[in-house]
Write a structure and sequence with these properties.
Elements: H1 3-6, E1 13-14, E2 18-21, H2 28-35, H3 38-41, H4 52-67, E3 72-78, E4 81-92, E5 105-111, H5 120-136, E6 141-145, H6 150-158, E7 162-173, E8 178-187
Parallel strand pairs: 5-6
Antiparallel strand pairs: 1-2, 2-3, 3-4, 4-5, 6-8, 7-8
Length: 188
């Protein structure tokens, strides 16, 4: 797929066990419910949607940003159950995906706690990274991770990301109302 075709419709990526697919309003209930779990939100910079309605609005906003070529928002589901269990997001630091490979692209992800430690996010990120790097010839893919999130640090390093440094008090953590340090990792 070339980058001109990519934004006509978000491609569905299939792995051995998963689909990475576009999200719809029908996913709002699942999105809302897995964000209610502190095991999911403790490392994020926000608490997630406060209602199913807000989750539906959030999905609509993500899809609008996709239409503007500012965000790639994949929903993760198991192949045998199309229920949303997580997301993978890719977003240019500046501009749109039309400007690539000129600017770094951030990657972010979360997964329902019921699906942690099963290799699901490794599988999902491997597919997403391969797709965006091949389609957009991205020079630098980067991720910001709070130091206590050992699982995400290990995962990203396993996928080839290199730790570059510590950004002091970089991230406002809405749940605890404090600024948190983050570790910057990059795949070049």
């Amino acid at each position: 797929m070339n980058d001109a075709d990519f934004f006509t419709s978000l491609p569905v990526l299939a792995t051995e066990r998963l689909y990475l697919r576009p999200m719809t309003e029908d996913d709002a209930d699942e999105l809302y419910h897995y964000y209610r779990d502190e095991r999911v939100t403790r490392y994020l910079d926000w608490n997630g949607p406060s209602s199913v309605e807000e989750a539906a609005e959030l999905i609509a906003q993500w899809n609008a940003k996709f239409d503007e070529k500012q965000l790639i928002p994949w929903g993760i589901c198991l192949q045998d159950d199309h229920t949303l269990i997580g997301t993978v997001m890719c977003m240019p630091m500046r501009g749109t995906f039309e400007d690539q490979p000129l600017h770094p692209v951030n990657i972010g992800f979360e997964l329902s706690a019921d699906h942690h430690h099963q290799g699901i996010m490794t599988e999902a990120l491997h597919a997403a990274i391969a797709c965006v790097k091949e389609t957009f010839h991205i020079h630098r893919l980067q991720a910001e991770v709070v130091p206590d999130n050992g699982g995400s640090l290990t995962l990203l390093k396993k996928l080839g990301f290199k730790q570059e440094g510590l950004l002091k008090q970089y991230l406002w953590h809405g749940a605890s109302a404090v600024f948190m340090d983050v570790i910057m990792l990059a795949l070049i």
